[in-house]
Amino acid sequence: MGLSSSCGEQDYKCGERHDYPRRRARRHEKGWLMASFSMATKSKIGGSLDPQDWKPVREQAHRMLDDILDYVERIRERPVWQPIPDDVRAHFRSTVPTGPTDLTAVHDEFMRYILPFATGNTHPGFMGWVHGGGNVPGMLAEMLAAGLNANLGGRDHVPIEVERQVVRWMRQLFGFPETASGLFVTGTSVANLIGVLVARTAMLGVGVRRYGVAAEPTRLIAYASAASHGCIAQAMNLSGLGTEQLRMISTGYDHRINLDALEREIAADRSAGFSPFMVIGTAGTVDIGAIDDLAGIARVARRENLWFHVDGAFGALAILAPDLAPQLTGIEEADSIALDFHKWGQVPYDAGFILVRDGTTHRDTFASPAKYLRRETRGLAAGTSWPCDLGPDLSRGFRALKTWFTLKVHGTDAIGAVISRTCSLARYLEGKIAETPKLELLAPVALNVVCFRYRAADANALNAEIVADLHESGIGAPSTTTIDGHLAIRAAIVNHRTSECDIDALVQAVVAYGDACLQNRAA
Ligand SMILES: Cc1ncc(COP(=O)(O)O)c(C=O)c1O
To answer: Between 230-238 and 188-204, two packed helices, what is the crossing angle to 10 degrees?
Structure first.
C-alpha cells in the first residue's frame, strides 16, 4: 500500500468556493462553515503528502496500534534488553531514501529491527539509571499530539491552555503562588539550566542578558552537594558562570548535604569578595535517592539571600505519595523546582518541567520581542505571555498532552501509590540482600534506589561483569555507580510494572552470575 500524494486534475483552486464573512459576527454561520468543510473533504491538494486512499492507511494504522499495544501488554514475555546483532546494526547504515517505501514495509522494518532492540525500560525487570516505564494513555496521547502537530512556542490555541493547566496543577501541588510560571522542557538537565539562568537574572538584573557575566566585577558562586547530578555543573558551564564557581558541598553517609559545611563555604566566599547567589538542593540524588534537608537549605538561603533551586528530577513527585511527601518538607519554599514527569510520573519520554515562583523574573530571563512574533489582541496571534518567553525554545511540541492524559486517566493518587510501591520494593530488595550472605548493601536505602554488590576479592571488576551478564541474559537491567570507591550494582526501581517476582529474579541472577564468574576465574 503506497502513501504517494495526490496531485493534478482535481486540484482545488484555493479560495474559489469561499463565501468569506464580511463581518466578524458571521464567523460561525452555518453556510460558511459548511463551505469550509466541503473544501476540506472534497479537495485534493497537489503535492500533498496525505494518502490518496485513506482506507488502507487507516487499516494499517490500526495494525500499528495493535502491534504496539501487544508489545506493552506482553512485555514480560520479552527479554528486558538484548544485544544488537551485527545485521541489525548494519540495517541502519543504508543511504538516505530518495524514493517512497510502502508504509506497511516500513512498519515491518520497525517490528523486526527497532522494537526488539529498544532500551527496555517498559519492562518490569528494567532497574537501570532512573528510567520511567511509560503508560498506555500517555502513549496514545502522544499519537494524538502528533496528529494535531501543535507548536506550543506561542499563539492562542487550547494546547497551550493544557500546558497552563498542568502548570496550575504543579503550583497547587508544591504550594506555589498564582504568579508562579512553569514550562515543559526535554528533561531536568534543561530545567536545571533554566533555574540557574533565572537565578542569575534575579541576582544581576536583566542587563546581564546584554553584557554577560564577564562584565560583572565579582564572581557568582553556586552551591550544591557532592551528590548532586552532573547536569548542575553542566548548567554552570552552559550559563557562562563556569564550573569553577560551583561549590560541591560535602555530604554524610546518608548522601545529604552538610548544612554546616554549606554555611562555612558561603562565609569563606563572601570574605574572599565573591558573590554567593544560588543554592541547589536535591530531592532524590542520582546515586542513592537521598533527599537533602530542604527546609534547612531554605533557611540558609533566606538568611544569606540566595536563590533556592531544587533538582527534583525524580524525587519531587514523591509529593504525590502521602507516606513520602513529609521528606520533601521545605520544597514549598523553593524559588524554582526542576522535575521529570518521565521518571516516577511514568509519562512517556520526554517530559521535563520547571516551576518558578517569580514568573516575572522567569519571563525577564528569556522574553525577546521580535517583529515576526508580534502579539495581538485577537486572532491566532493573541495573548501576551507565550511559552517561548519562558525558555530557550521557540518551536515546542505538545509534551503537556501525554502528561495531562496520564494525570487525568490514572489520577495523582494512583501515581502516588506507584511511587510508594517502588520504595516498598526497594526495602524488599534491601531485605533480600540482608538475608543473602553473598551480597552486601553499599548505601542506605533512602527511597527507591538500592546499591549493593556481590562479595568478592576483586569486587569492582566482578560486579561490573555481573551487570553486563545480567543485561545480556535479558533477565534484568540494573546499572552501576561508585560508592566510596566501590563499584555498586544500582537498582533504581521506577517502573510501575515491577513487582516482588522481578526483585527475586534479580537477586537470584546476581548470585548465579557472581558464582559463575568466580568459578570461571578459578578454572
Ligand atoms: C537528580 C537528577 N538530576 C537531573 C537528572 C537529569 O535529568 P534528565 O535526564 O531528565 O535531563 C537526573 C537524571 O537521572 C537526576 O537523577
So the answer is: 50
Residues lining ligand 1, CB < 6 A?
130, 187-189, 229, 231, 282, 284, 286, 311, 313-314, 340, 352
Distance CA 324, CA 326 (A): 6
Cell output for 51: 494518502
pLDDT at 306 over 70: yes
Closest CA to 122 of 505, 507, 477: 477
Q: Ligand 1 pocket check: which of 196, 229, 331, 354 to mutate, most ligand atoms within 8 Å of Cβ?
A: 229
Full 3-state SS string of 359-424: HHHHHHHHCCCCHHHCCECCCCCECCCCHHHCCCCCCCCCHHHHHHHHHHHHCHHHHHHHHHHHHH
Identify the burial level of 178 via C-beta atoms within 10 angstroms of its C-beta, where 0-12 means exposed, 13-18 middle and 19 or more buried: exposed
Atom index in ligand 1 nearest the CA of residue 192 equals: 4
Instruction: Reduce the DSSP state of residue 138 to 3 states and report it.
Output: helix
Q: What is the 3-state secondary structure (H, E, C) of 48-87?
A: CCCECCHHHHHHHHHHHHHHHHHHHHCHHHCCCCCCCCHH
* Paired residues of 5 in beta bridges: 51
Angle at 413 between CA 407 and CA 418, to 5 degrees: 90
Segment 54-110, tens digit of pLDDT: 999 999 999 999 999 999 999 999 999 999 999 999 999 999 999 999 999 999 999
Q: Which H or E run contains 199?
A: helix 188-204
Residue 25: pLDDT over 50 = no
Residues in the chain: 523
Lowest pLDDT segment from 222-226, 275-279, 374-378 = 374-378
**C-alpha of 187 from chain center:** 4
